[in-house]
């Protein structure tokens, strides 16, 4: 009997179908998983509708100049209306000729590219402008991308590109594309690329400039015009040739343009911050802005804030020039006088410190390796010379503020104009101000009822072991407050304290109200400037004198706006009355004498600055710190000159404030007034009319030390000076005042020995 096999065939067919369906199911699951994975990495609908490229925050000066930026990606957005037509034409001709007709993906171009890649072994891309935008805008490409990762990314690009085309117009896509693209050398976006490579606004780009810009989109490294000029020229000309093919240029135009060189104007961009005009001011602003931005929910480095500051770019340029002009020559003078053989102990300590900070020393693992590195560096002449040069580098802290509102107009925090993140010596250092602190002592005395003609004995004393002396070692009899500050007589200033004319707490309170925020050491030597302060504090406090006694907190930021121009926050200085208008005017008049005929007269004689001005020199012990602080009716400025290492100091009188610091102040003020043509203003007498000139009996001041107003009974003549009418003394009466001499006649000479008897 025959065997029937049909049921077996049926079973075999069923198994095959099961296998096929199983395989299909596996592929479906894999495909589904793949698509889920693809879609999981796509930007959200909100992200598509609100793209957020990282934008640099811009810092503007008060006169409208862009002086710096803060960023993670150095980018400034520009609208499509600012893009020159030949830039768009160059892009479309080279990167995506079908841009206006495709829907995000160009399938025909893709297939052609794949055929060339596979069969002709030619690498050719097929990404549309929209696909490139998707990749750049949403960071779809990752580093160290695998083959699988590339496939995933390409699919995501396609899907995202299609969604972008649904969401935006072609013009909007072009605008986004140019604003998010990277062009090399820290330039993100077309505006920064224009600035970095050509120092132009994007509207000013020529046809050949646009050719270079579009060439960089292919590879910002390979076609870098700085490092690979020939590559850049070749690619630029190809871009312009493509424009001919598309009818955007004629052959004649192309033949002419391709012969032109690439005219570059490279602007260096540092990581995170740009701006070489006022680097220390920018850093000062940055630290404030981090707090302000955080308070309002912004990221300073990503959200494109617009920061409007108080800086005057014109004044800043003048300040930079003043510092460099003076320090260039002054450094040479110091170098000639400094002898490392006399200061070998300092050099030894400095070298030891710097060697142990050296990367090679820190990288050494064993003690023997460290010793070897140490010996190598200590015997390396170039290294030692470098440390020597660094150690004796003269530094500067300079700041100028507007007298009337406290706006910081210029700031120099060191001798290197390109230093972006270094120590800001205008703000961050605290040094003894020397005699430049004396005006606060004199102002306190005037507040207490004294006046410029008030006499103080210019004689040595011993006060609980404290025995200061005048800088020139001179002594004399009675001198007026005006003479005391004009000649910067330490003995006179100190006696205001020890004789009880002013109290230490009064000096501290007045200085604080005027703008000195550092904690002051309230001891008698404060009269000679032994307590530490910063240049910004001094410039601010001095401006109070010029502002009729009204103090303004120094400010650097006026207002902050978001990228759309919406106000984030506004800032103003809150004025407060620190001293009376009368005290401010009398103190100012005293300091005018310093400049007109005293220790600050080089302002007039040496630099021919003739505008109304007042100020004071300052020099600390052993010429460690040199100061000049002064003001006009419009501007106050403080200058500190010295060394970062306080063991290094000037070696003689050339380190006095009048020679080391004053020139910077004078050069700045003269430059500002000459170049900016500031209107002529003078210090205004108090509206109260209480400050008036008075005629004193000369002998009552200089012989008796007890000032009286002039009468016809005076033998010594008239001495005229300003006085607050509330502090007017009595008229001289010989019957009452003839015998009020308080010390012997021999002390009245100008040649009294320093060994004169102690004044109790």
List the helices and strands and how they pair.
Elements: H1 6-40, H2 45-49, E1 57-60, E2 66-70, H3 85-95, H4 107-119, H5 129-137, H6 147-167, H7 170-180, H8 190-198, H9 207-218, H10 229-245, H11 251-257, E3 273-274, H12 279-295, E4 306-309, H13 313-337, H14 344-357, H15 359-363, H16 367-378, H17 381-391, E5 395-402, E6 408-412, H18 438-447, E7 455-457, E8 478-480, H19 481-486, H20 490-498, H21 504-514, H22 535-546, E9 550-551, E10 557-561, E11 567-570, E12 576-577, H23 581-597, H24 602-605, E13 614-619, E14 626-631, E15 635-642, H25 657-660, H26 662-676, E16 691-697, H27 698-702, E17 718-724, H28 734-737
Parallel strand pairs: 1-4
Antiparallel strand pairs: 1-2, 2-3, 4-10, 5-6, 5-15, 7-8, 9-12, 10-11, 13-14, 14-15, 16-17
Helix pairs in contact: 1-6, 3-9, 3-10, 5-6, 5-7, 9-10, 13-26, 14-16, 14-17, 18-21, 18-23, 21-22
Protein architecture, described:
By secondary structure, the protein is α+β, with helices and mostly antiparallel strands. The chain has four domains: 348 residues, Beta-lactamase; 194 residues, Penicillin binding protein transpeptidase fold, CATH 1.10.3810.10; 49 residues, no CATH class; 58 residues, no CATH class. It has 28 helices and 17 strands. The protein has a six-stranded mixed β-sheet with strand order 3-2-1-4-10-11, with helices on one face. Strands 6-5-15-14-13 form a five-stranded antiparallel β-sheet, sandwiched between helices. The protein is elongated. It starts with 5 loop residues before the first helix and ends in a 23-residue tail after the last helix. The C terminus is likely disordered.
